[in-house]
Specification:
Blueprint (H helix, E strand, L loop, with lengths): L2 E3 L2 E6 L2 E9 L1 H4 L6 E11 L2 E13 L1 E3 L2 H4 L9 E13 L4 E6 L2 E9 L12 H5 L6 E12 L5 E14 L3
Parallel strand pairs: 3-5, 6-7, 9-11
Antiparallel strand pairs: 1-2, 2-3, 4-5, 7-8, 7-10, 8-9, 10-11
Length: 171
């Protein structure tokens, strides 16, 4: 969910974004920005602008906004999603969006920043270039916390296979 106004929301995945006019189940599920939702509805239009109407909420994956310092203390989990924001201090792989984020004294590695939920294969590539994202920009991503241990036994805490939420460019 990238915009939220009493059940009228904008949803986005790797293929694009659309407006959803009222969702049944919205209030009962307390949907918030960043939550990952699955809906079923009909294609509609208002003033020639495409939208979804008659939407029913099928599932929700809640996303918790959290600081980098806080996520570093959380256990690894493949089913718990966090939203983190930080300044990009280094781009390790521009194709897949592997970056280092810093917020205050805390930093974390983001292993993969993809254009949206559900992206696979080549759809995962090129987000940083397409959005003009560079070192110094403030980036917000959604993903799971994981720890990667290399062959030498060195462990790196990371946000894995993250979903792009937003960014602010350096002026």
């Amino acid at each position: 969910i990238v915009n939220n106004n009493d059940g009228r929301i904008n949803i986005r995945d790797f293929s694009g974004e659309t407006f959803v006019y009222k969702i049944t189940g919205y209030q009962a599920n307390s949907l918030k920005l960043g939550d990952i939702v699955t809906i079923v509805g009909k294609r509609a239009a208002y003033n020639d602008s495409p939208q979804v109407s008659g939407a029913v909420l099928e599932s929700v994956i809640p996303v918790t906004p959290i600081t980098i310092a806080e996520v570093l203390t959380k256990p690894d989990a493949n089913d718990v999603y966090y939203m983190v924001t930080g300044e990009i201090t280094q781009i390790a792989n521009a194709t897949y969006g592997n970056v280092y984020l810093k917020d205050g004294d805390s930093s974390i590695y983001v292993y993969g920043c993809y254009p949206g939920y559900g992206a696979t294969g080549d759809a995962r590539k090129g987000l940083l270039e397409a959005k003009g994202i560079k070192v110094g920009d403030k980036l917000t991503v959604i993903g799971i916390k994981n720890t990667y241990t290399d062959k030498a036994g060195v462990s790196t805490i990371q946000i894995q296979n993250s979903i792009y939420f937003s960014h602010e460019s350096v002026k």
